[in-house]
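Table S2 (text version). Query chain:
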Amino acid sequence: MLRVAAVPDDVREQMIEAASPPTVSELAERGTKRKAVKPEPYKQEWADWVFAIKRLRDLPDCGLDILARRDSGLTTERLLADARAAKANIENWITALEARR
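Corresponding structure-token output:
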């Protein structure tokens, strides 16, 4: 009954007033909150991360401004979006590694 009560009132009323009303089991199913399942990493993911982190570590600071100005055919917005996504991934990676200590 708790799962049936978890269904928002307006949704529950619409379901009950439908041409073929749902069973209690169907209402309970609708009120069940599912946990998001995080997919397991694929086999190569660890090696890919290690390789990427080593490449970033070895990338010299003293040429990044030149690389950022280079016309690579990509828009600046696209490069910024990619760099921001990489930054977010690295921050998540650092957080996960620190949690394992």
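Notes on Table S2: The helical segments are 2-6, 9-16, 24-30, 45-58, 64-69, 76-99. Residues 69 and 76 are 9 Å apart (CA to CA).
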